[in-house]
Specification:
This protein has helices at 5-13, 41-52, 89-106, 124-139, 149-155, 182-195, 239-244, 308-321, 370-383, 397-400; strands at residues 31-37, 59-62, 78-79, 117-121, 145-148, 170-174, 178-179, 199-201, 206-212, 215-221, 224-233, 252-264, 272-275, 280-284, 289-300, 330-341, 347-350, 356-360. By secondary structure, it is of the alpha/beta class. The strands form three sheets. Strands 1, 2, 8, 9, 10, 11, 17 and 18 form an eight-stranded mixed β-sheet that branches. It has an eight-stranded mixed β-sheet with strand order 5-6-4-13-14-15-12-16. It is globular and about 65 Å long. 50% of the residues are buried. The structure holds flavin-adenine dinucleotide.
Length: 416
């Protein structure tokens, strides 16, 4: 049942009796070509592109909870492709291009809103670094501009331009960056995959892997064994725990990241704004709430809730750059479990066990990657080789010394 204006009109005139559930509540079948473990954004988009682009339709997505219960429904919804390194920028630009056609592609309103992203800079060296980043983006086909102080004043006159420690000198501006309604992304991909024949199984926890003669032949779940030619793990903050079931240790730590929403305000922010001298980012939702966040909580955890020191730190960041935020009341906040890799970059790769594949290490930036991550993972699963833009997202890169250290911070997950 495709969604359309005509359909809404017809249903409105006939008592809304013709709507069907957006996806079937499937039970696991005995065997599949591919079993995807984890029904977050990345797992669902993988299933969708497997079926739609690569013609692999005997696919199941096994989710231990309900769809959208993980980070896909907990993030601050920012999309962008403002990366520096050649192993990242083409990937994130590909993702942004997929976002741009996504709603037409899966016939679902995900509220993709390209209102732009401002990365503020506060010193001459930081300006030079952002100019370099902007040039790299443009070389990869992305859009980037440098705004001076006057340009930012026109957009956000209320910022603390003359802050004694962090005066605002300009910004890297990506007009095509923006926000997307996060849980609609899960629902849209789920509905799209379901229509192509994918089984989406909720409340089905993977508890082990069926490994026979060194080859992964499927998974053990809370709903019984499910056999598959290829098993694709995609469980974000639970990566280390799930891969440990196959005896694999990962260069990943799980941390909590919190998000905050203020009461609804009149429109004040044109797009997304990030503070270049501290860790604070903010956008405004269509309902008017300021949606913001900052650093991860500074300890390892598998809990989807955070602690007060991080709240104070994030609010200090907000007050430093945008003092008027102190007058807005905080409406709600929550935590999500982020899979912080040792160099801040992700993995889309096969593992040392034949038939077992891994996608993770997205840190706190994996929402924007959702379309490209699913597409590239599906490419690897269907064709047996990495997609051109995800070639270096390999698990052995630490052994080879080929780190993708976007921020140049070294092996410190809390700093990425
Ligand atoms: C507060 C916060 C803000 C963020 N803001 C942004 C942002 O603005 N922009 C951005 O790009 N990124 C952001 N991120 C990061 C982004 O949300 C994640 O990188 C991305 O969503 C992770 O991929 P996912 O959607 O597949 O994860 P998830 O939605 O977490 O999916 C993983 C799924 O695996 C399931 N699972 C776990 N174990 C098992 C098991 N044993 N069996 C079956 N299923 C299992 C989980 O229940 C979960 O549903 C943010 C994250 C958080 C927490």
């Amino acid at each position: 049942m495709p969604y359309s204006a005509m359909r809404i009109l017809k249903e409105g005139l006939t008592g809304n009796r013709g709507w069907r559930p957006a996806w079937r509540d499937a039970e696991p079948g005995p065997g599949y070509d591919v079993v995807v473990v984890g029904g977050g954004g990345h797992g669902l988009s993988t299933a969708y592109y497997l079926a739609k682009t690569f013609g692999v339709t005997r696919v199941a997505v096994l989710e231990k909870n309900w769809l959208g219960s993980g980070n896909v429904g907990r993030n601050t919804t920012i999309i962008r492709s403002n990366y520096l390194l050649p192993d990242n920028e083409p990937f994130y630009e590909f993702s942004l291009q997929l976002w741009e056609n996504l709603e037409q592609d899966f016939n679902f309103n995900a509220m993709v809103s390209q209102r732009g992203i401002l990365n503020l800079f506060h010193s001459d060296p930081q300006r030079d670094a952002f100019v370099r980043r902007g040039n790299t983006m443009r070389l990869a086909g992305a859009d980037a501009e440098i705004l001076d102080e006057e340009g930012i004043r026109r957009m956000c006159p209320y910022l603390d331009f003359e802050n004694a420690r962090f005066p605002i000198r300009g910004a890297l501006w990506q007009p095509r960056g923006g926000t997307v309604r996060h849980d609609a992304v899960a629902w849209g991909y789920a509905r799209g995959a379901d229509r192509l024949g994918v089984d989406i199984v909720q409340k089905c926890e993977v508890t082990g892997f069926l490994i026979e003669d060194g080859i992964c032949k499927g998974v053990e779940t809370s709903k019984g064994s499910v056999r598959a030619e290829r098993t694709a793990v995609c469980v974000a903050g639970s990566s280390s725990r799930v891969m440990a079931l196959a005896g694999i240790r990962l260069p990943i730590e799980s941390h909590v990241l919190q998000a905050f929403v203020s009461e609804g305000l009149k429109p004040v922010l044109p797009g997304v704004m990030t503070f270049g001298a501290g860790h604070f980012y903010v956008s405004q939702s269509d309902k008017g709430g300021l949606v913001f966040g900052g650093d991860i909580d500074g300890y390892n955890s598998y809990a989807q809730r955070g602690n007060l020191p991080a709240v104070e730190d994030v609010c200090e960041g907000g007050m430093a750059i945008m003092p008027m935020i102190g007058r807005a009341r905080l409406l709600r906040m929550w935590g999500g479990l982020v899979d912080m890799s040792m160099d801040g970059s992700a993995f889309i790769d096969r593992t040392e066990i034949d038939g077992l594949y891994f996608n993770g290490g997205w840190c706190y930036g994996g929402f924007k990657a959702t379309p490209a991550s699913g597409y590239c993972y599906a490419h690897l699963l269907a064709r047996g080789e990495p997609h051109a833009v995800a070639r270096e997202m390999r698990l052995d890169r630490f052994r080879r010394g080929h780190l993708i250290d976007e921020k140049g911070q070294g092996a410190q997950p809390n700093l990425h």
